[in-house]
Amino acid sequence: MKLFTKSILLIMLFVSLTQAQIGTRMVGFDARSMGRAGTSIGTFDSPVLMMTNPAGISFLNHSGVDVNFSLMFPTLHFKNNLNNVDGDKNIFPLPGASYVHKSESNFTWGVGFFTAGGMGADFKLKHALYGTTLQDYHSKLASMQGGVSAAYKFSENFSVGVSAHMVYSMLEFSMPYSLDPLMMKGIAMPGMTFGQMFAAPPTAGGFGYDEVTAAAKMNDLTAIGFNGKIGFAYKVNDQLSFGLSYTLPTSLTYTKGKAAMDMTAQLNDAFGKAVQGAMMQGMTQAQAQAAVMAQFTGLGIDMTKGVIASYDLDVDLKFPQSFGFGVSYVATDDLKLSADLEYLNWEKAFDKMSLKLSNGTSVNVNKLMGAAAFNIDFPMNWKNSLLVKVGGEYNASKDLTLRLGYAFGSNPVPDATIFPVFPAIVENHITAGASYQATSQIMIHAAMEMALNNSMPASKTSLIANEYDSSTSDLSTMLIHIGFSYSF
């Protein structure tokens, strides 16, 4: 247990120092299984079963500790009518550790924590509203979970298991954020809101905007939730085994966050449009500026106080339930084949992200929005996804095992809501790995995973913002997985 405690402390230190960012949901959760594309639901050889099929820990041969550490190297690209650029070259660390206790009884238990998934990206992009000034586009959604698992063998061949995990997640966003003008519900004049004024065509006395944009930043958001799993494991004989698993959906409320909203560029653009309109009616530039300033003042907007606001922020987000089936077959004494099939119910989870802003600090922004507190539903509309994994492992010698695998996960992101800092669009994964029995108790694992590039065009009319209309997002990743197993 001393070795396990030291491993936990070391990985907690890594997490606290690196602020891990994660690009896509991991195909697997340890180096051993990742060599064969993450297959583990019906393959009972690793404590990672606590994440995939807790019933399988009943069939492990020994008590033991697993420590795993992965590095993710994503490659991103974004193209629209103003940009054709690569994203930042980030490196994301992904830790995990677990312990399983075997005894003479039919009861087996374990404890562990794992990097569960997330996504993130960084770009510097041009935006039509900001001219040549590059804007920061940043996201981070990181999720870790851990807790206890237990399994009971009802017979020599059949076991049932459960995992009860706490989930810890972090969320950040920073980018120009565009809204329907009608979100501005403040009263500009009797019978007209600011939203209606900004949306109305110039011929009707408006500005003609179909969206309004603010430089937005959301940070300090953290959430704690619960995730449960149940699994069934059936070992027909020493050659053939099956597994079934179900993972509950996880509802998270990110609290005590901060949001900043800077509408300076948008209001300056509106002010400029109004000045141009006044000049077209015969005023000089100075006269037009004075007249428009007086007009804004009459609407209750004091231009000298600016339009930069900060808010308290809560965010609601769900992670999906999933169903899994796995099979493992020992073809020969040296060759084992395995396959998993998973269904992820994104449709009922990532349909939207609900933002709740309160205690706005800007008198002018509060006037425009109609209140110091308001809610925004950020559209996502993800589709359900199937994940198919197949792999094999070959005992090259008594101490060395070689692995290969392939995984395909259908892309859940629709073309109407794809945007560069929330990509998650890779589909094809190729993996290779090996394990070496260093001593009778210590085994070393290594694997490499290549998520092949996927290029996805956005729809002609994006639900996120005009800047993403007919844009193209590209994502590929490379991951290196290292693991150590110590058997008691």
Helices, strands, pairings?
Blueprint: H1 2-18, H2 31-34, H3 49-52, E1 64-79, E2 84-86, E3 92-101, E4 107-127, E5 131-153, E6 158-179, E7 187-189, E8 192-193, H4 194-199, E9 212-235, E10 240-247, E11 250-262, H5 264-279, H6 285-298, E12 308-319, E13 322-330, E14 335-344, E15 352-358, H7 363-369, E16 374-379, E17 385-395, E18 400-409, E19 428-437, E20 442-457, E21 472-487
Antiparallel strand pairs: 1-2, 1-3, 1-21, 3-4, 4-5, 5-6, 6-9, 7-8, 9-10, 9-11, 10-13, 11-12, 12-15, 13-14, 14-17, 15-16, 17-18, 18-19, 19-20, 20-21
Can you characterise this structure?
It is a single chain. The strands form 2 sheets. This protein has a 14-stranded antiparallel β-barrel with strand order 1-3-4-5-6-9-10-13-14-17-18-19-20-21. Strand 13 and strand 14 form a beta hairpin. The chain has 7 helices and 21 strands. By secondary structure, the chain is mainly β. Helix 5 crosses helix 6. The N terminus is likely disordered. The termini are close together.
